[in-house]
Specification:
Layout lengths: L5 E5 L11 E7 L2 E10 L2 E7 L14 H10 L4 E10 L9 E3 L2 E5 L26 H8 L10 E2 L3 E5 L7 H9 L4 E3 L5 H7 L3 E11 L10 H10 L1 H13 L21
Parallel strand pairs: 1-4, 1-5, 5-11, 6-8, 7-9, 9-10
Antiparallel strand pairs: 2-3, 3-4, 5-10, 6-11
Length: 264
């Protein structure tokens, strides 16, 4: 049995893999998604640039539904997403990598489900473990001594609407919620991935300290520069994810999330 393609959602650092790619536009019921298809050994890779070509789409305008639907249509079952984040706690330092295990949603205007009533009905998806625990355990359990940074196995992510950075007052509030990291892109992506019955994991790159914690004003340049510095570490995690053996009988509930509804 041929292995299904693996999905990678991220930014420009993924292009540093140096693979030949075929660009393809995928039509879905929710719009179009641009993907790049490539091969690594025996594994086909479907890479999706979340912000589009040249980082042109702001986080609140991303078509998350089309992106996840496109991966599903292409036969992807396992997805690794990357995300740049700000740290709310000193323990998570700029340059660190974090495997997310929980999120808090503070978005405001984004479609967060494939099931808006009508023909598809209504689904109340279980998100007790929103990120695939099997994949997180596999990646966290590997020997990462070759990394020039720390890789944390757990972290709670709070998602804001963007595209502006958060105020110090908002960050103080988020800290009271016991969140560790803040970003603008992981919701509703993680929710839609579960509704599509995908095993989905996010590795977050700590780009800076959040407003009020940082000793200087926040800039997009700071985020870009930190992502560039951590590119080699991030690529090692991505390649490890691609190389991990595919399981036809995953010991997680991601691929049977809709077993009682039979909807997708």
């Amino acid at each position: 049995m041929a292995m299904p393609p693996v999905g990678i959602i991220g930014g420009t650092s993924v292009y540093a893999l140096g693979l030949d790619t075929e660009e393809r536009t995928i039509n879905t019921s929710y719009g179009t998604a641009l993907v790049h298809l490539s091969q690594w050994g025996e594994r086909e890779i479907v890479f999706l640039a979340r912000h589009g070509k040249g980082h042109q789409v702001p986080p609140h305008r991303i078509n998350y539904q089309a992106n996840i639907a496109a991966l599903k249509q292409l036969g992807v079952l396992e997805v690794l997403a990357t995300a740049s984040v700000g740290s709310l706690v000193e323990y998570f330092q700029p340059g660190d990598l974090v495997l997310l295990d929980q999120f808090i949603d503070f978005t405001k205007s984004r479609p967060t489900t494939f099931f808006d009533g009508g023909g598809k009905g209504v689904v109340h998806i279980d998100l007790t473990e929103p990120y695939c625990p099997r994949l997180r355990k596999i990646i966290a359990g590997q020997d990462w001594q070759s990394l020039s940074c720390r890789l944390h196995p757990n972290g709670t992510y709070i998602c804001t609407e963007g595209p502006r950075f958060e105020t110090p007052a908002e960050i103080m509030m988020f800290k009271h919620f016991d969140a560790h990291l803040v970003g603008m892109t992981n919701v509703p992506e993680v929710i839609l991935a579960r509704e599509a019955e995908l095993c989905y994991l996010t590795v977050a790159v700590v780009a800076n300290y959040a407003a009020g914690i940082s000793r200087q004003p926040l800039t997009h340049r700071e985020v870009v520069d930190t992502m560039a510095k951590t590119q080699a570490n991030l690529l090692k995690v991505i390649l490890s994810f691609i190389a991990q053996p595919f399981s036809t009988e995953a010991d997680c509930s991601c691929r049977t999330a809709l077993r009682e509804m039979d909807q997708f």
